[in-house]
Amino acid sequence: MWISRDLENTLREISRQRPALVLTGCRQAGKTSLLQQVFPGHGYISLDLPSIAEEAEEAGGQFLRKHLPPLIIDEIQHAPKLLRYLKRTIDENRDKTGLYCLTGSQKFPLMEGISESLAGRVAVIECQSLSAKELECWRQSSIEGELLLDLIFKGGYPELHAKGLEPERFFSDYLATYLERDVRQVIQVRSLRDFDRFMRLAAIRSGHLLSANSFASDLGLSPNTVKSWLSVLQASNIIYLLEPYYRNLGKRLVKTPKLYFLDTGLACFLAGIRSQGDLERSALLGALFETHVLGQMVRWHSNRGRRPLLCFYRDHEGHEIDFVIPIGEKLKLFECKWSESPPDVPKGFEEITALVGEKNILSRSVITPTRGYRGLTSRDLILDDSIELKSLEI
Question: How many other C-beta atoms can be found within 10 angstroms of the C-beta atom of residue 210?
């Protein structure tokens, strides 16, 4: 059963403007199905099969003559030399748009090849797993209360919801595939057991400041190894590193990024949470709710073909704001609380207002899981489209 994606209109619009587009994202986010749904008249070829990837790599010109545009080419990173032939075909047809749709799950080799061969010729778009808004439209019911807990526990991978799969089995298979196919190919991890332990520790620390030295100490690894592995998770759209806001505010502020998983279902599985009840009783619930909100913010931007302009605020006295959105020189402030009655004015709001001035604060919002508090709820989030305020349901 197809679940409509907010990214569909963005893909159509970009395809009308550019000769090619590249859709990146983690495995099982629904990239291939999405392109086939949006562009039913396109041909399709997957480079996942070694024999087809070898043909595309070794005889790119012949391959493109056999598979004419408009064409969807799946997992393009398996044939990086093909990108040079795509460049030539695009240059010979510069007035044509919508020639090629490419997908890739390994951003490191994919983006390296694109920057060398297709710079200025393609639009790069990220596909995330399902947003709460997409699931809400599909289910035709509001995601709050028990349904919100269920979404945080299961996450947004489309197959989980469309086919009603059991989360533990799905994520177990997902990790086996991810570890074997992507991690070994990209960084050639010697010990998959160490990498698995590393991912589980990262999940437990979702929503916290990132310390490579702390990871290294806890896992018995070198800091450089930890940094390399974090880069792989980030490039695979498994984690998101949220940078701090410290422009013009002096050196008193923390400059370390915060680590978040982009899918709370995967984070829950890695953290050992095996049921919705486990999640409700878990000490990680607050951090996972914050992770959920960050994920919805990222999805809102990605589904419009934009880079998220998000950061957080924290000073060395521990005053913090979960999310800060800069709009020019002005700021929007968001605090997440898994509580119906959080403090009226979070201390971080007062601190940053004192630093930047009241005139530079556009809004202050507290996001909670229910409507029992006068602030925002987990379904109402103020973001903006350019400068205009819009309502975003999460």
Answer: 19
> What pLDDT is attached to residue 146?
85
pLDDT, position 346: 81
Question: Which of these, 223, 245, 241, 243, lies nearest to 233 by C-alpha position?
Answer: 241
What are the pLDDT digits (tens) for 235-253? 889 999 999 987 666 555 6
Q: Cβ-count burial of 373 within 10 angstroms (0-12 exposed, 13-18 middle, 19+ buried)?
A: middle
Alpha carbons within 13 A on the beta-carbon side of 63: 24
Farthest-apart Cα atoms in the chain, separation:
66
Please give the backbone phi and psi of residue 24, each rounded to the nearest 5 degrees, phi first.
-105, 170
Overall number of domains in the chain: 2
Cβ 335 vs Cβ 349: under 8 Å: yes
Quick check: 150 and 132 in contact, CB under 8 A?
no
- 384 Cβ neighbours under 8 A, 6+ residues apart: 325, 327, 332, 390
pLDDT for 347-377, tens place per residue?
889 889 988 899 999 998 888 887 433 344 4
Kindly state whether residue 2 falls inside one of the protein's structural domains: no
Q: How far apart are CA 161 and CA 138, in angstroms?
A: 10
Cβ count within 10 A of residue 313: 24
Same domain, residue pair 286 and 308 = yes
Evaluate whether 18 touches 305 at the Cβ level (below 8 Å): no
Same domain? For 220 and 155 the reply is yes
User: Residue 290's closest CA among 331, 240, 231?
Assistant: 240
* Candidate from 12-26, 74-88, 278-292, 330-344 with smallest mean pLDDT: 330-344
pLDDT tens per residue across span 199-213: 999 999 999 999 999
From the list 161, 155, 160, 145, the residue with the least C-alpha distance to 269 is 155
SS3 of 43, please?
strand
Q: Are residues 100 and 216 in the same domain?
A: no
* Polymer length in residues for the chain: 394
Q: What b/e readout covers 212-233, taking b as 16+ CB neighbours within 10 angstroms?
A: beebbeebebeeebbeebbbbb
What range defines the domain where residue 98 resides? 7-126
The percent of residues in the chain predicted with pLDDT above 90, rounded, is 63
Asked if 107 and 170 sit in the same domain, the reply is no
Q: Which residues of 179-205 are buried (b: 16+ CB within 10 A; e: fewer)?
A: beebbeebeebeeeeebbebbbbbbeb
